[in-house]
Amino acid sequence: MGNQELHRGLDGIAVAETRLSTIDGEAGELSIGGYPVAELAKNAIYEESVFLLFNNRLPTKSELESFCTELAGYRSISTEVRQVLRQAARENADPMDALRMGVAAANLGVDVTEPTELAKRLVSVIPTIVTTYWRYRSGKEPVDPRDDLGHTANYLYMLSGEEPDPAAVRGLETYLNTVVDHGLNASTFVARSITSSDSDLVSAVTGAVGSLKGSLHGGAPGPVLEMLLTADDSGDPEGYVQEKLDSGERLMGFGHRVYQTRDPRAEVLSHAAERFYSGSDDRAFFEFVEEFEETAVNRLADHRPDRNLETNVEFYTAVLLHGVDIPQELFTTTFAMSRVGGWTAHCLEQLADNKIIRPLSIYTGDRDRSWTPVDSR
Ligand code: ACO
């Protein structure tokens, strides 16, 4: 035990086998369920991506129809959960905290314990929790889910109360497919760790939501949007970027621990955003974004020639979610709404071949102390 090597943050350590997704950081490639992310993202509906992760194959037409029906049947939340969300909204809780509270109660009033069924419940209920909370927080009554709408369209419908625009549904669907799974990231590791003690999926996803909330994980797209809007308003994006770098700040939406290239998800989402904005009134904003990206990548290359600081997924996440009218405050909860497909698939994979995750720590405290009675300290 004395010669244990320390791997801070488990860097470079493999602790699980998975068939769900794989990343090649050098080549800038991501494959989900065996499909290049670009192919899955543009063709699948979200339910198809989740079926692929759960079953290791794409569904037939009739399997997809029944899977969509099953998921739609799990969307409702109880009056008690609504009350919790209303109270969270009164207290102006962070949307990720409200989501954590709602997810923790996801099996309240729902008689489901079988892991695969719980996985479906968790995937289905997150949009209802997020939109119920958000409508309360905006001073509106929640909108009940509609089981004649697909997962993505229903989310937009519950958010606005209006029939969603098909272009917005397709844009959001592409986003949800793109980020549904990404190797053993921090929140997925948390979900697998909780599952590995033979706990349940509601506990695992509640923990994963807590992990995703952190600014080093799911919190970047909000600041990206703020940066873009401020740079656009400044009228001098080049000067804005230079000033940030000169003052030692990081440019949000650039750089990645794993990818040495432009993040393949940024590639997919930039095309999706381009398609969306070309049919919208905000085409000028997208043109600005493209110019900003080019300026930022060039300035970062001058600033840090020793590193490949390229565009990451969060840059175009912000642009696309803003375009389809997701409030900035809900960017991270919308990320959770996608990633729950990956979290639950990892939980099921862990259960199928479980060994409790129990790493070591290296003790750095004192040894051989002798007890001093409280009155003598
Ligand atoms: N802008 C300016 N400088 C940067 C940036 C950036 N976006 N990214 C890294 N650097 C610099 C750092 O300041 C650091 O400089 P130093 O060596 O003088 O201290 C050096 O490059 C290395 O930075 P690390 O944080 O050690 O590199 P790492 O590869 O671990 O960082 C990270 C990856 C955290 C994403 C980083 O690039 C970053 O902070 N980017 C901005 C925030 C962001 O976009 N986050 C979302 C990431 S995508 C995702 O997680 C899903």
From TrEMBL:
InterPro entries: Citrate_synth-like_lrg_a-sub, Citrate_synth-like_sm_a-sub, Citrate_synthase, Citrate_synthase_AS, Citrate_synthase_bac-typ, Citrate_synthase_sf
Domain of life assignment: Archaea
Any GO molecular function: citrate synthase activity
EC number: 2.3.3.16
GO biological process: carbohydrate metabolic process; tricarboxylic acid cycle
Pfam families documented for this protein: Citrate_synt (PF00285)
Keyword presence, Iron: no
GO cellular component, one term: cytosol
UniProt catalytic activity: oxaloacetate + acetyl-CoA + H2O = citrate + CoA + H(+)
The keyword Ribonucleoprotein belongs to this UniProt entry's keyword annotation: no
Annotated keywords: Acyltransferase, Transferase
Residues the record marks as active site: H256, E314
Protein family membership: Belongs to the citrate synthase family.
PANTHER family: CITRATE SYNTHASE, CITRATE SYNTHASE, PEROXISOMAL
UniProt-recorded name of the protein: Citrate synthase
Species the sequence originates in: Natrialba magadii (strain ATCC 43099 / DSM 3394 / CCM 3739 / CIP 104546 / IAM 13178 / JCM 8861 / NBRC 102185 / NCIMB 2190 / MS3) (Natronobacterium magadii)
Gene: citZ2
